[in-house]
Amino acid sequence: MCGIVGAISKRNITPILIEGLRRLEYRGYDSAGVAVLASGNGIKRTRAVGKVIELENALEKEPVHGHLGIAHTRWATHGKPAERNAHPHLSERLAIVHNGIIENHSALRKKLTDLGYTFTSETDTEVVAHLLAHHYKEKPNLLCAFRSTLRELHGAYALGVIHQGEPNTLYCARMGSPLVIGEASEEQFIASDPLALLQVTDQFIYLEEGDHARLTVESREIWNQRNESVEYPVLRYEHAAHSMDKGEYRHYMLKEIYEQPAAIANTLDGTLAEDHVLTAALGPEAETHLADIRNIHIVACGTSYHAGLVARYWIEEQAGLPCQVEVASEYRYRTVAVPPNTLLITISQSGETADTLAALRHAKQQGYLASLAICNVAGSSLVREADWRLLTKAGPEIGVASTKAFTTQLVALLWLTTALAQANHRAPEMISANVRALRGLPRLVEKVLHLDQHIEALAATFTNKQHALFLGRGPHYPIAMEGALKLKEISYIHAEAYAAGELKHGPLALVDENMPVVSVAPSDSLLEKLKSNLQEVSARGGQLINFVCERAELDNGDGITHLSMPWVYESVSPIVYTIPLQLLSYHVALVKGTDVDKPRNLAKSVTVE
Ligand code: AGP
């Protein structure tokens, strides 16, 4: 989605805004813009279609300097990517940037048109600029005008505002879209994500829903929706130590794939004893209630949803608890039957996904025992609003395609399954085997990463392909789903995943010599069943690519390629088999020449519905 940055300082803030946009570009990359209050010259706005580099080129030709400014990188919702639709939007003597969707923009547009305002864009955001100008005209007090404006907005917003009438003040507000204030000595910043500001500060204040704030170089005032003054702690950003550049890697996605051994080790740090898990990692309240949980509902989107699907196999088999998994965009609008003592688990890399957040808020009215957020961002809305939290420690994930966030979510979920199994006095041998397998996981993932060159060689199979099928069974079926999602999102090849046993019920009709079929074939209790399914594909001339355990014996033959995987303990096998599928989609995307880190039409953090 869109990303916003704002700054007020005694120094020139334009380079800070631009660096902020560069760091936020993963949120939206169809256009970008900046508005700076240039000393003595009013607000100077520069906008450009395309990536942030285009904006930088424009600023190089006509530089702007100032101590107060706002900036934006856009992911189009209303109005196609075009300079006229890029933010900031201006009205009279003010400029605004916005992330979110103003749902009543049509009614407001009509009202403002009737009042004589002219619109120059198709965006929902421009109504906010004119509405604020209108209220300021009625009463030239920016705080009052801002509050009157916010009262009229329906929908989601994070807003940054500057006005020539108050040249030393930066205003901001949030409702339904994330916004943080970054604090440093004699300067203050706002941003959609702390990552945007790590070059200037690691100290952040996380605004709550409905808050608005007024910032100067030496003061910070925050009010809630009822206009009551509120104060929040200033928190140090935990990921600040992580490197934010690509380093030696060609893409963030590749770097993040290679960071998985460390990300997994960090996520497990301090959570494992010799033969059991240390449930204190969940916090004292959750720890006390673990044994009370009788049912589990998991809600998430995209890749995080796939992590939930894998966890269902683990939780039902190992902890003996019924578990259902649902996409958040469906769950949030339906009446859910919640049996007594049910735990709601939301899973999210960003903790700001609009559907997942709405699902959590919906769940709060449904009588759950508690809600647990599994999330990669400690200060995110999801983490702050859930009763309990379990943090993945993947570090910032910049590539739009989720990789290390997914494997660390799986690690957290297997750890949680083991904690639930422990609380329910399930077989101690199984618990200690899980602990051993989790401990050995970083090394195992490292080993699989060494297969990279072999996987790269497979990518050529996809050169002229438009479609692909992915097959798996048991907990590897969601892994096949994740493999298919990765391939489609970064290589634009249409890919579908099936539980291998379902093939003969329809999809087998698609199989011929032009259809690559990727299978996940660990040496588990379902291997013999899977073998029969693969024979069905071979018999129809399908091109099989099998990621197969070194201990499993699969048929060879024309059109069959095997990539040998190390033997792994069954519980952690879905995590290990994720790695080659990530690498495969990465190399296919290279062959196809797509923008790996910023695939078309997508955004990293989906903060609108
Ligand atoms: C995965 O590669 C995607 N980019 C996407 O499906 C993502 O997992 C989804 O939007 C959910 O995001 P979250 O984990 O931040 O909530």
TrEMBL record:
Q: Which UniProt keywords apply?
A: Aminotransferase, Cytoplasm, Glutamine amidotransferase, Repeat, Transferase
Has the keyword Repeat been applied to this entry?
yes
Q: What is its main location?
A: cytoplasm
List, for all copies, the residue spans of the domain called SIS.
Answer: 286-426, 458-599
Assigned EC number:
2.6.1.16
Reactions mediated catalytically: D-fructose 6-phosphate + L-glutamine = D-glucosamine 6-phosphate + L-glutamate
Location of the Glutamine amidotransferase type-2 domain: 2-218
Residues in the active site? Answer: 2, 604
Q: Which Gene3D superfamilies match?
A: Glucose-6-phosphate isomerase like protein, domain 1 (3.40.50.10490), Glutamine Phosphoribosylpyrophosphate, subunit 1, domain 1 (3.60.20.10)
Query: Mind telling me which InterPro entries this protein's record contains?
Result: GATase_2_dom, GFAT, GFAT_N, GlmS/AgaS_SIS, GlmS/FrlB_SIS, Ntn_hydrolases_N, SIS_dom, SIS_dom_sf
Q: Which GO terms describe its molecular function?
A: transaminase activity
Which superkingdom does the taxonomy of this entry point to?
Bacteria
Subcellular compartments: Cytoplasm
Leader peptide range in chain numbering: none
Name the top EC class.
Answer: transferase
For this protein, the record's NCBIfam families field holds:
glmS, PRK00331.1
The function of this protein is: Catalyzes the first step in hexosamine metabolism, converting fructose-6P into glucosamine-6P using glutamine as a nitrogen source.
Quaternary assembly: Homodimer.
Q: Which PANTHER family match?
A: GLUCOSAMINE--FRUCTOSE-6-PHOSPHATE AMINOTRANSFERASE, ISOMERIZING (PTHR10937), GLUTAMINE--FRUCTOSE-6-PHOSPHATE TRANSAMINASE (ISOMERIZING) (PTHR10937:SF0)
Question: Which protein is depicted?
Answer: Glutamine--fructose-6-phosphate aminotransferase [isomerizing]
Q: Which organism was this protein described from?
A: Halopseudomonas pertucinogena
Q: Which gene encodes it?
A: glmS
